[in-house]
Amino acid sequence: MSTPNAQSKTTAAYVAQASIAFGVSLIGAGVGILYLPLDVWQRGFLAMSVLFLVTSSFTLAKVVRDRQESDSLRVRVDEARLEKLIAEHDPFKAA
Prior knowledge:
Layout: H1 12-34, H2 40-88
Helix pairs in contact: 1-2
Transmembrane segments: 12-38, 44-64
Keywords: Membrane, Transmembrane, Transmembrane helix
Domain YiaAB two helix: 14-66
């Protein structure tokens, strides 16, 4: 009894939409910071904050993805072990 591959595939349109949304939001934040009526050091602080937010978002997404992949792999290994035990078990054999 085999289980179907549960990994989902992303379409090219979804990747393009996510990339465009990321680019538009990052450019929008940059333009917003650029045109704020603030001193240069305040704009720099906001720009560094946005940069830190972006990089930490990528890191968080990678950690969540890696955890999901490791959980998925562990479940598949456990299922394979269980199937092996069931296949090797003979209910009519005396203990």
